[in-house]
């Protein structure tokens, strides 16, 4: 479901670098586009009223003298000079059209057009002019001298954003091209960095895998050496110590047989008991060092014998074994490792789990030895409990054979250990 888990290291590094760059680039493009639109709106809001005001001020004389042709020439020149002006209309005081001119039609929706209007004002200034005798020429002059202002028409300017948008679009494309070049440079740099980091990481991973393989080979050699040394010690105990104890017991029995009743016979009987106890202890030690049943009965038989031993010890826990497959042809090093793992797990159950029931499942499936060791004991918290030597030893034995181990546990939830190891 999560495809990124299957990505290579270089792809992940590129994604980690490219995604922030792509986000920054998209933010930059969006901001540049919006800022250009804002500039167009602000420029239209400033230019429209200014053009209408200037044209209204310059149209006073033309309207008074009714020189509409001159006014139209002025309007047409203004339209050619400023492509953002779509239409100019000159109206009289009753808003009847006197002069109009429009630029070439462009594809602009009516909602995008902006209309600005300014009044054309007529200013009258009264000047006192006297005849030589001191009498005024104009006898009908208003009593109050000065300037009179009246509205004689209007100038309406229609602004279109098309030309301004075209200019700002060109600027935006330039910025976009510069941004794309910068993004491309960053991507190439990120690619080179990812390539270098990937090569360095791959080299480190190869070195780590080689070190791990070397560690596993060393662990296999150590385990083999330990098992060989255990076998040697077991043979020494079996052949030397136990044989000597048998001889001691036989001599003590002969002494007891020829001695009259009394202290000598009692001492001989004590020696017999001590020799027998030491012999049994030696046999138990030999079985622990090198289980003979593993060679005679195979892994399943050896585990069954081990579980009978724990049952006879009256540990308060009932043990159950389920085995499926032919374990007689299993490689010796796999069998002894599996036996030691089960031995350590059962020992932990007896010592720490306080369980009342435990089970061991052995099966041969798909070229693997699969084991499940579970109990209903106290369990432990994997996040807080530190791995003891037993768990570490179990993991190392499994990893040394290129196997897998999973421990499922929790407080008051029991423990379940799943192990899979190749048998070849």
From TrEMBL:
SUPFAM superfamilies for the chain: ATPase domain of HSP90 chaperone/DNA topoisomerase II/histidine kinase
Coiled-coil annotated spans: 201-228
Keyword presence, Membrane: yes
Molecular function per GO: kinase activity
UniProt xrefs under InterPro entries: HATPase_C_sf, HATPase_dom, His_kinase_dom, Histidine_kinase_BarA_N, Sensor_HK_TwoCompSys, Sig_transdc_His_kin_sub3_dim/P
Transmembrane residue ranges: 12-33, 172-194
Record's keyword terms, sorted: Coiled coil, Kinase, Membrane, Transferase, Transmembrane, Transmembrane helix, Two-component regulatory system
CDD domains in alphabetical order: HATPase_UhpB-NarQ-NarX-like (cd16917)
Domain Histidine kinase intervals: 340-424
Annotated protein name in UniProt: Sensor histidine kinase
Organism: Duganella levis
């Amino acid at each position: 479901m999560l495809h990124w888990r299957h990505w290579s290291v270089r792809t992940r590094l590129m994604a980690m670098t490219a995604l922030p760059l792509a986000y920054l680039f998209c933010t930059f493009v969006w901001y540049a586009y919006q800022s250009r639109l804002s500039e167009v709106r602000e420029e239209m809001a400033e230019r429209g009223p200014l053009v209408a005001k200037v044209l209204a001020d310059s149209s006073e004389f033309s309207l008074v003298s009714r020189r509409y042709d001159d006014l139209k020439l002025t309007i047409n020149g203004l339209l050619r000079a400023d492509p953002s002006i779509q239409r100019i209309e000159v109206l009289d005081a009753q808003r009847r059209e006197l002069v109009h001119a429009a630029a070439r039609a462009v594809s602009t929706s009516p909602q995008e057009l902006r209309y600005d209007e300014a009044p054309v004002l007529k200013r009258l200034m009264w000047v006192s002019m006297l005849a030589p005798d001191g009498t005024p020429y104009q006898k009908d002059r208003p009593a109050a001298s000065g300037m009179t202002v009246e509205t004689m028409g209007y100038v309406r300017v229609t602004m279109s954003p098309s030309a301004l948008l075209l200019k700002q679009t060109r600027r935006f494309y330039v910025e976009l091209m510069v941004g794309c070049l910068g993004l491309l440079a960053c991507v190439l740099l990120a690619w080179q960095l990812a390539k270098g980091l990937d090569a360095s990481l791959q080299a480190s991973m190869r070195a780590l895998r080689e070190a791990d393989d070397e560690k596993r080979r060393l662990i296999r050699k150590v385990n083999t050496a330990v098992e060989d040394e255990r076998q040697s010690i077991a043979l020494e105990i079996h052949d030397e110590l136990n044989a000597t104890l048998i001889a001691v017991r036989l001599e003590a029995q002969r002494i007891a047989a020829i001695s009259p009743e009394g202290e000598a016979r009692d001492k001989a009987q004590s020696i017999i008991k001590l020799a027998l106890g030491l012999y049994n202890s030696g046999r138990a030690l030999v079985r622990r060092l090198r289980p003979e049943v593993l060679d005679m009965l195979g892994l399943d038989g050896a585990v069954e014998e081990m579980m009978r031993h724990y049952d006879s010890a009256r540990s308060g826990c009932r043990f159950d074994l389920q085995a499926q497959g032919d374990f007689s042809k299993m490689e010796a090093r796999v069998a002894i490792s599996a036996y030691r793992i089960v031995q350590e797990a059962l020992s932990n159950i007896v010592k720490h789990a306080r369980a009342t029931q435990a089970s061991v499942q052995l099966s041969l499936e798909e070229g693997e030895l699969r084991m499940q060791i579970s109990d209903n004991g106290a369990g432990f918290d994997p996040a807080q409990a530190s791995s003891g030597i037993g768990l570490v030893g179990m993991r190392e034995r499994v990893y040394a054979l290129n196997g897998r181990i999973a421990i499922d546990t929790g407080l008051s939830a029991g423990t379940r250990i799943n192990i899979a190891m190749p048998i070849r």
